[in-house]
Structure formats: structure tokens, C-alpha cells
Design a protein that fits this description.
Shape: globular
Strand order of the largest sheet: 10-9-8-17-14-11-13-12
Radius of gyration: 27 Å
Number of strands: 20
CATH architecture of the largest domain: 3-Layer(aba) Sandwich
CATH superfamily of the largest domain: P-loop containing nucleotide triphosphate hydrolases
CATH topology of the largest domain: Rossmann fold
Number of domains: 5
Helix content: 40-55%
Distance between the termini: 58 Å
Largest sheet: 8 strands, mixed
Length: 720
């Protein structure tokens, strides 16, 4: 089916033709035949890279150009939201019915804001959490939305991301019943069940633009699903590298999924010993430039040095512990072909689009914290990784290879994964603490709900569709009883109302349990002395704090010394050491506490990494999360009427943002001046903006870490 024959506005068709689209993939043709362009709700389940985005673009374009209104695109991850924003920016060249150009906007953070600018957007791209937050703030433009596009809907079964996705889809069904829903998903076993829940037509296809062949490696050979066999030469660097290097030898790229961060680093460095012999002079030059760029971006650490070493030789690793800017550089390097072998933890499979000719899984086991041990990865996760195999327009075939050590293991792998079907998706809404969060949000957003109205909403969830009404009602009642007992909601007659405290907790987008712990801490402490450490400790202990890095034996002595030095500052009672269980629980978050304490005292990322095992990416997330929780704690203080913490919280937030002592805060207000440059200026006697204003350009430029370009930037800001 040709694009030019579709029932879409001419300007949309012309725009897409200019972008290189001319003919529909079979998957896209099926969606069109299913009336997606005429307002039909649809669940489209297909492999990765099979053309779901074009269907989203076609449906969005036709809707907005013919009907007007707004389009909301929902993404599970910030990185994916940014990716979609870049793809949908092509709409900015088109005019709406009123003659104005289409406005594409993006929002993925700040959960205590309605982001008024979004109201002016026509295509609004949001993370699931951001949209949930907007609903809690009562966005006035929800009735203007004509189309909701929900990406990666199979994640409704994810332990952590699933409940939010499930509740916002349920609310869409209730609050915007006239709007069209286009749900995009990987292939799942119970797709019919999900389609029925969404009231959507199911289009389920296995077609891929690049043929996929799956293979099992055994004794130096890959046995493929199409009955072909390929011999693999040894590199003496391990089986995963043998398999990956074979692809590079023939001009392709390989992606190795690893079970741990440490393993991804190890395999990347070993790959770097093999790849150079396949690189051209131009490849080596580009790799060298990229390696230098990594070292000049952010603070230099042992991890960044290892990354730079690997990249210099055409390999790289990618995981959540990396500096976000380094992750971006690696992604760009892989897309451009500079990086030939990329090793990554499996989280990349659900992240940005980085296809490779061959995908290798170094292990089929992952650590499961709930079970406290190693478990097989799911077939669904494996199929998601398979989705990265094959680059459209570059490869005719994509390959996924699973290593095995014995014939018995090879047979098991082939049966379980190559021939296996993805697991069915199950609701995670009833997990401990989750349901009460979303019930509180519903009551806060829709005050005055009766019990029957509550039932009407939550009995539309996937959870209700998959469980008996008695089970659903029991779980709901347990959650409601908890919320009432903690004064988050109350009954007025037969109607539910959120208390002032409960409503603020919901709007802050924090777990009710976090809000309760904040309230208890405020009540426990009436002291007016400095409590910086106590506030930080409280932040890292609440349920919403991530990443959760528990104590190691090596940290124990330092933690006890830390407690002794700061025991007067804690906002949580310190258990007696004789109460082993309570004391151990008290200690569990001290690794994160000490890392953040070192951060605001200007310890280098290198020192924090070495001393606490806090990698740059972990530190970045911890700092970002701590800032939000500090803000939330301040808001709870205001609600309760305890303002003695507010000055310290404000100071702590500013120090947390830049990782500096108080004396550097004025310097860090300057663009381009981070913690390292601010300290250099301070040590050179340029301790504040007034001294910088009085200093000459040459004096500023001569300071270590500053130089002419930064000095000019400082002077332009000071004088401006």
C-alpha cells in the first residue's frame, strides 16, 4: 500500500514523502485496514522496529489536521520521550485548520506543576508519570484531547512502571471516553485480554522489516533457527566476544547484553583488545576523538577512564551507572558506527533505539531481589532484546545468539527461548502500597467520590479484569482503611474526601508512606540546632528514595563513626545497638547518606565511587531524587505548620544541586561554573560575584580550570 493512496490530508502526505516514506510495511497496512485512521481504538502488537511510530504519526497527523484538538503521546521513559519529541518535530512545518503551525511540546519532570505552557501545545509528549501528575493537578485541557498514544503498553506488567501506566489508561477510559486510544506494544501472549480491557481492536503481527534468525552457540559454532550453521573463530577473550567480533569482521556491529554492570565493563575492555584489527584509519581517528570527548565531559573518574580506553579501540559499555552525558555520547557513537561492539545491561532493551546486526546475550540469568537469587530472564525480555537485532535499511538479516556450554543446555535454551512464547501480562496494581497511592490520587482529583463511584473507576482496571470482584474489593478496602487511619482521607457522609495533608501528598507525587514518615520526623524533632545530616538521613530512608544501595561490611565502621559524630542531628530515633534488627534497618541507607554528605562537601566523584561504590549515574539519580524529596519535605513542613526546617532545606537543596559547600553557592549561579571551577575561583581569591566584577579578564582567565573562553563567558554575565 502506497502512502500517497492513504485517506490523509495532502500536506501530511507531502511532508512524509519528503521524509522518505513512500510505501507502508505490512504491519502498517494492517493497522490502516483496521480503521486506525478513522478513530478506531487499537492495540498494535509487533516486534521492535516494525513501523509502529509511522502509524502513530499518521494517526496523530490526520486527527489534528482534520479534527483539531490535542494529541497526547505517553512514554514509559524520559529517554524515549525525548526520542519521540525529535521524531514528532516534523509536524512543526504543518498548519492547523486555523492557519497556525502545529506546536510540539515535551515534559518529563517536575511533578508538582501543571506546566501551563503545555496548554498551548498541540502534540504533547509526556512520560507516564508526568501525565499522572498532571491529572492530579487537574489539567483543564483533558477534554480537548482527541487521541492518546500509549507506547510500550506491555510494560503494564512491569513491577515498578506498570501500576502508573495501568491507572492512567483506566482514567483515560473514564475521563475521556470519546478520545481515541492507540496502544503500541511488543508481542505478548494475552494481547486479546489487553485489547478487550482497552476496548480496542487488536492488530497482532510478527512481521519485521529485517528478517530475524535466532541461534544457539555451542562448541565453536552457531546453530541457527533456519537450520544453517556458522563456525566462529576464537579470540581467546571469551565466547560472547568471539560471537560479537565475528560480526565486526564482516563490517557489522554487535550488541552484547550482560547480566551486571561489572560484566558489561569487563566485556567492553576485552572487546577493545580485539576490535582494532578491524578498524580503518578513519575509524581509529573518530574513535580517538570520541575517547577524548568522554574524558573532557564531566568529572574524570576511573569509570570514565575505562570507558575512554574502550572507546578509543572501537568498543564501549552502557549502563545506568554512567554519567548521563557519557551515555548520550555512547549512543551517538554506536549509531554513527564509531563503536563496533557495545556491551550493555538489559535495561537498554527497553530504552533508546540502538539496533545492531547481531545481538548476543552473555547470560540468561539475572539477579532477582524479590527472590534473593539468580533466575532465568523472561521470554518477553529475551524477545525485547531480539528486537535490537538488524538495522533497517542497512541489514538484510538480524541475528540473536545465545551461548551454551553443553548439548543439554543448548536444547533447553532453544526450547525455552527460541521456540518459546512471551509470558502473559499481569497487573501489578495490587502490590503492597501501590493501590493506596492511586486510590488517594483518585480521591484527591475527584473529591466527593462515593464508594460506588470508586468501584466504577477501579473495576475498570486490568487488575479488576484479571481478578474476582471479592479480591478487588478486599484490596481496595484495605487501602482505604489505611488512608483513613493515617488521616490522608476522611469520610463526609457517604463521600470520600482527601484531607489537606492527603491532597498535598498526592500532588507532590510521593508515596503516602513517604509523607507519613516526613510527618513523623517533624513531630519527633523539636530542636532548632543544625540538622543537615538528619534531614539527609530522612530523605534516603523513605520509600521513594532511589537508588537503594544497601550497606556493605566495609561501610559498617564508617557508618558507626558517622552516627557518633552526628547523632544529635537525626530526625529518626536511633535504635539501641543491642536491638540488632532495628539497628541494622537503621543502618541500611547509610551508604547513600554518606555518599550524598561527601557530595555536598565537595568530594570528587572519583572519591565517592571508590569509597562507596556509587557510580556517576547512580550519584546523578540520587542527587536528582534527593532534591525532589527535599522539596516535598519542605512542603509537608508547611502543611503541618513547622517552619523551622525550611531555611536548612533551602540551603541543602542548593548545595545538593551543585555538590558544593555554602561558600561557593553565589559562584555556581553563573552559567558554565560548576563545583570544580567554582572552587578554583574561590581558592584564587575570587570568592563572590563582586570580586569577579572587579577582577580583570586576564586575572580570571589565568585561574586553573578557567581559561580564556570561560573567562569571557563569566565577564559577559557579570557585566550584563
Amino acid at each position: 500500500m502506497k502512502l500517497s493512496t492513504l485517506p490523509i490530508p495532502r500536506n501530511l502526505s507531502e511532508m512524509l514523502l519528503k521524509q522518505g516514506y513512500s510505501e507502508l510495511y505490512p504491519t502498517q497496512e494492517e493497522a490502516v485496514k483496521g480503521n486506525v485512521l478513522f478513530g478506531e481504538n487499537m492495540l498494535l502488537t509487533t516486534p521492535t522496529a516494525s513501523g509502529k511510530t509511522l502509524i502513530a504519526i499518521l494517526t496523530a497527523g490526520k486527527t489534528i489536521l482534520e479534527k483539531g484538538g490535542k494529541i497526547v503521546y505517553l512514554s514509559p521513559l524520559r529517554a524515549l520521550a525525548k526520542e519521540k519529541y525529535e521524531e514528532f518535530k516534523i509536524f512543526k512545518t504543518l498548519e492547523k485548520l486555523n492557519g497556525d503551525n502545529i506546536r510540539v511540546v515535551l515534559s518529563s519532570g517536575d511533578y508538582d506543576s501543571s506546566n501551563k505552557y503545555l496548554r498551548n501545545g498541540d502534540i504533547i509528549i509526556l512520560t507516564n508519570e508526568k501525565f499522572d501528575s498532571l491529572l492530579r493537578h487537574g489539567i483543564p485541557w483533558i477534554d480537548e484531547v482527541k487521541l492518546f498514544i500509549a507506547d510500550e503498553v506491555h510494560l503494564v506488567g512491569d513491577t515498578y512502571r506498570g501500576p502508573t501506566l495501568e491507572t492512567i489508561l483506566t482514567k483515560i477510559l473514564s475521563l475521556a471516553p470519546e478520545a481515541q486510544i492507540l496502544a503500541l506494544s511488543a508481542t505478548i501472549r494475552n494481547a486479546k485480554e489487553l485489547a478487550k480491557w482497552l476496548g480496542a481492536r487488536l492488530v497482532d503481527t510478527q512481521w519485521r522489516p529485517v528478517k530475524l534468525i535466532e541461534g544457539v552457540y555451542l562448541y565453536g559454532e552457531i546453530f541457527y533457527s533456519d537450520d544453517t550453521i556458522k563456525k566462529i573463530d576464537s579470540t581467546n577473550r571469551g565466547i560472547p566476544i568471539d560471537i560479537a567480533a565475528d560480526t565486526v569482521k564482516y563490517g557489522g556491529q554487535s550488541l552484547i547484553f550482560t547480566e551486571t554492570r561489572r560484566r558489561s565493563v569487563s566485556l567492553a575492555l576485552k572487546s577493545a583488545e580485539v576490535v582494532p584489527k578491524y578498524l580503518t584509519k578513519d575509524d581509529m581517528k573518530k574513535a580517538s576523538n570520541m575517547a577524548k570527548k568522554i574524558l573532557s565531559t564531566g568529572e574524570e573518574t576511573e569509570l570514565s577512564r575505562r570507558l575512554s580506553r574502550a572507546v578509543e579501540h572501537g568498543a564501549a559499555f552502557h549502563h545506568a551507572g554512567l554519567n548521563p552525558k557519557h551515555r548520550q555520547l555512547i549512543e551517538e557513537g554506536f549509531r554513527s558506527g564509531v563503536v563496533k561492539i557495545l556491551t550493555s545491561t538489559s535495561t537498554l532493551a527497553a530504552g533508546v533505539n540502538l539496533p545492531a546486526r547481531r545481538v548476543v546475550l552473555s547470560s540468561l540469568f539475572r539477579y532477582n531481589s524479590d527472590l534473593g537469587g539468580q533466575t532465568h530472564i523472561s521470554v518477553l525480555d529475551y524477545k525485547q532484546m531480539c528486537g535490537r537485532a538488524g538495522r533497517p535499511k542497512f541489514d538484510t538479516v538480524g541475528e540473536t545468539v545465545l551461548p551454551s556450554l553443553t548439548e543439554e543446555e543448548a536444547d533447553d535454551i532453544y526450547t525455552r527461548y527460541v521456540k518459546g512464547e512471551p509470558e502473559p501480562i499481569h497487573s501489578q496494581l495490587a502490590r503492597k502500597g501501590v493501590l493506596r497511592t492511586h486510590i488517594l490520587a483518585a480521591i484527591s482529583t475527584l473529591p466527593g467520590m462515593t464508594d460506588s463511584e470508586m468501584d466504577m473507576l477501579f473495576f475498570k482496571t486490568l487488575f479488576a479484569n484479571q481478578n474476582s470482584s471479592d479480591t478487588v474489593k478486599r484490596k481496595m478496602n484495605d487501602a482505604i482503611d489505611f488512608l483513613i487511619s493515617e488521616n490522608l482521607i476522611k469520610m463526609r457522609g457517604k463521600r470520600f474526601l482527601a484531607t489537606e495533608f492527603g491532597k498535598r501528598i498526592s500532588m507532590l507525587y510521593i508515596d503516602p508512606a513517604t509523607g507519613i514518615e516526613f510527618r513523623q520526623a517533624i513531630r519527633y524533632s523539636e530542636r532548632s540546632s543544625s540538622q543537615i545530616t538528619g534531614i539527609l538521613h530522612l530523605i534516603v530512608t523513605v520509600p521513594d528514595f532511589t537508588p537503594r544501595l544497601f550497606m556493605r561490611k566495609v561501610d559498617l565502621e564508617n557508618a558507626n563513626l558517622f552516627i557518633e559524630d552526628h547523632k544529635s542531628e537525626f530526625l529518626i530515633p536511633i535504635p539501641e545497638e543491642s536491638d540488632f534488627k532495628s539497628h541494622d534497618e537503621f543502618l541500611q541507607q547509610f551508604r547513600a547518606l554518606m555518599a550524598l554528605s561527601y557530595w555536598i562537601d565537595e568530594a570528587s566523584e572519583e572519591r565517592i565511587l571508590k569509597q562507596f561504590g556509587f557510580e556517576p549515574g547512580d550519584l546523578h539519580r540520587a542527587v536528582e531524587n534527593a532534591d525532589w524529596l527535599l522539596y516535598s519535605f519542605a512542603e509537608v513542613c508547611k502543611i503541618i505548620g513547622k517552619t523551622n526546617f525550611l531555611t536548612e532545606i533551602d540551603l541543602l537543596r542548593r548545595r545538593m544541586k551543585y555538590g558544593v559547600k555554602s561558600e561557593l553557592l553565589s559562584l555556581t549561579t553563573l552559567e558554565g561554573i560548576g563545583r570544580v571551577r567554582a572552587r578554583s575561583l574561590f581558592n584564587a581569591g575570587l570568592r563572590n560575584l563582586a570580586k569577579l566584577r572587579a577582577a580583570s579578564y586576564n586575572q580570571i582567565a589565568s585561574v586553573e580550570k578557567i581559561g580564556p573562553a570561560v573567562a569571557r563567558k563569566i565577564k559577559s554575565q557579570i557585566n550584563g
